Each structure stands twice: as C-alpha cells, then as structure tokens.
Amino acid sequence: MTASMPVWSIIVPFCLGLFLTKVLTSSQALPMIPILVVLLALTALPLLAIAVTAICEDDRVVISKEGLSFPLFMMPLLKFKRERHWSDLSAADLQLNSSESSAKTLKGWITLFFRSGGRASLQISKVEKSELEQMMLALEVWGVNCDRSVALIEYQNNLQNESRGLERFTYTQMWEEELSRRFSATSFVPLEPGKSLLTGRLKVVRQLAFGGLSAIYLAQDRQKELVVIKEAVVPANADLDTRAKADEHFAREARFLMQLSHPQIAKVVDHFTEEGRNYLILEYIRGQDLRQLVKQHGAQNESVVLDWSAQIASILQYLHSQSPPIIHRDLTPDNLVRRDDGTITLIDFGAANEFVGNATGTLVGKQAYIAPEQLRGKASLASDLYALGGTMFFLLTGADPEALMSSHPKETRSDVSDKTDNLVANCTELEQVDRPESAAILCDKIRDCIASLPKEPKASGVA
Q1: How would you class 323 by CB atoms within 10 Å of its CB: exposed for 0-12, middle for 13-18, buried for 19 or more?
Q2: Which one of 69, 114, 134, 367 has the fewest CB atoms closer than 10 angstroms to its CB?
Q3: Where residue 98 falls among pLDDT bands split at 50, 70, 90?
Q4: 288-452 belongs to which homologous superfamily?
C-alpha cells in the first residue's frame, strides 16, 4: 500500500479533478450513467486504499489496566467491538499445534473469549517472548474474572522459567531448589500470592526473589498499577532494643531513598511496617535484568558492555554524590534491568538491607561481587566500584567473577581489548587505594575505553 500510495493519493485524485472539470465545462450533453460510474470509481478507490492501509498498519494488541484494544482486521471475530474491558474477558485458552511445536519453538494460538460475544486469537510465533510474558502477566493481574486454562498457566510458567534461565532444569532440580529455599534454617516464611497488605491497598501477585530473611514480590497497587515490594524481617530471637534500632534505621533509610530522583533508578514510592515486617514499595521497571539477558543471549559485545557500564557508573556517581553518600552494597547483574530502549536501570537498593545485616550479622550482596573491605563490614564508595568491575566481567564472559580476586576478562575471552581488561582488573583490585578514585573518574576511564575501540557498527546488546 505504501508503494502504491502515489497512485491512489495523487494520480487518482488528480484524474478525478480533471474528469469533473471536463464534465462541468463540456458544452455537449453527456450520458449520466457512465459519468456516475467513473466518478464513483475514482472516489471509491482512494477511500478504499486508505481503509486497507489503516487495516494493514494496525497490527498490534494494546493492553492497559483498563482493557484491551485489538487491530482492525480482528474486528469480524470480535463482532466489531474493538475495545474490550477486562471485566468482559471470560476465558483464555492455549491451543498448540503439536505436529509443529518443539521444545524451543511453540506453534499455536492463544484465544481470548468475551462475555458480550466474540473472541480473539493471537498466533504465538508472531509475538516476541517478552511481550507474551507481559500479556500473560496482564491476564493474571487485571483479568481477575478470567478463567485461564491449565495449558495457558503452564505455558506462562515455562516463559518465566526461560527468562530466569531455568529452561534446562529438571523437575527434580527445580523441586530440590524450592525446598532448599523454603525450608532453610530460618523461621522466615514469605508471603503467598493473593496476600493483601495495607488494608487491601496492595495485593501480592507473585514472588520475584526470596532468600535469608528477605523477599521481593510483584504486587498490584489499588488494583491498577504494578509495583515491587521489598520485604525484610528482623529475626524473632532479636532482643527488643535491636528490633527497635532496626526499625528506626529502616524508616530513616526508606525516607532518604524516597527523596532520590534519577531517571535510571527505580523510584522508592513508600514504606511501611506490617505484622512485624518492614516493606519498601518500588516502581516496577519493565525489562530484562542483565543476568537473565546474558543467560539467554550469552556474553555481550565489548562496546555494548562499555556503554552499559558507563550508564551504571553514572548512576553510582549520583548515589555517591548524595549527602550523606549512598553506598549501594549490592550492585550485581540481578539488580540492573535493560529497558526496551537500551537504557540500564537500577531496580534494588542494598543500602535498604543494611538494617537486616546489622541485626543478624549477615552480609548484603552476592559473594562474587563483594569487595574484601565489605566482607569485613567496612563497605565504602570503592566497594560499589569493585561490584561494577565484577558486573563488567560477567557481561563480557557470561560467568561470575571469582570471589576476592582481581578479575581479567581477557583470560576467558581473548577478543577483549587490553584497555578494557586493565580497567576491569583495576576496579576489582583487592586494595581500595588501587581502584579508581571515584565513580566520576571511572566514567571517564570507561569513555576512554569506548573511544579507543575500532569504529564499527554498534551491536544491539541482544543476540
């Protein structure tokens, strides 16, 4: 339709105008029926072309908290009701074509049925996996009265496992992992899906992470927006003074974090305490965390890693410039999300976990990304730079760095430039004085590495 646009948008209207001029200025009596036929054809052709163009161009289902909006070409099956509210959605089903499906590529349809009549079928192979996962989540959260089939729920679980890099796990491995997480030596029991908090304002959708005395959940705020809830618990055997100090520290940290405003840091919306547990409410960031991304697509191109690292260093520069400075303490690939536009966003605050560490003697952060001084309980601004160096190593190699070692990605991946290899090693030096002096200086060093790379088209960062 785009290629033929000059014909139906310029030539045909020009011919229509020329024909009308000839008819109106003709001194002879002309037959009316042929004139009307020509006029009708010349008028209908551009209108028909515009309608076809609109139908061809509109090929996406738009999902919001109010409902769903479908493309024009699906209207006949929807009984010409394009906009559908979630309350109208009665059922959702998955039909697979087993003869064409494999473990990696599923062929089939997701069909939505509506109470007021009509249905919509979406071909799985025509939709990106990340978008399918978002749609499954929307059906679960907003389509509360929708009857989802067992096959659809199982498919959603498989999608989520793939995103987390669990597609190769056997059921026994997954079961054993769940047992080890749930029945470790702690009295902490995470919240179950459907649990309400703040007198019904928040509803837990699912757990996102769980370990030790804390958990992270995806939740629905006022039955509309999605948010992330971070939960932390002071152990039951802690004395009253310790618990009071921990609660006070948490409230102070939370108020401080709520004042932060940076486009690449998930906003801390609120905090509260309920049933002896402390909670942060954070903005929900859509995207894929860097650990999931590397598990799915492998080690990343050096220029992409440097671009992301410059963004992360800029985030640290902002945190470290606060008064007093914020030491993140838990900068890892798990806490960094790549949005669809390629920007990196920090989604979690290790600083807010400090009160749990103080109360229990446990450490915040993943072992491979913890600087030696942080292990000794003396975290500093340089500790975050150490963690960023470890994150760069992971993105370049696809493997976690070795704990308490200066990391050299070039030993694993020979095509990494010497300059980048030296920078990662510099960031992960065991002594703080041997690392870059600040996040701002690290930003400059990363940009210097970017400038020294051969000039070639920049990769997208996703295989």
Answers
A1: exposed
A2: 367
A3: low
A4: Transferase(Phosphotransferase) domain 1 (1.10.510.10)
| Whole-angstrom distance, CA of residue 355 vs CA of residue 243 | 10
For residue range 397-445, list pLDDT tens digits in order: 999 999 888 999 999 999 999 999 999 999 999 999 999 999 999 999 9
Architecture field, domain 190-283: 2-Layer Sandwich (3.30)
How does pLDDT run across 307-333, given as a tens digit for each residue? 999 999 999 999 999 988 988 888 999
Indicate the domain borders of the chain: 5-57, 62-163, 190-283, 288-452
Q: Give the residue among 424, 351, 413, 415 at the shortest CA–CA distance from 381.
A: 351
Interatomic CA distance for residues 13 and 20, integer angstroms: 11
Q: Which amino acid is at 317?
A: Q
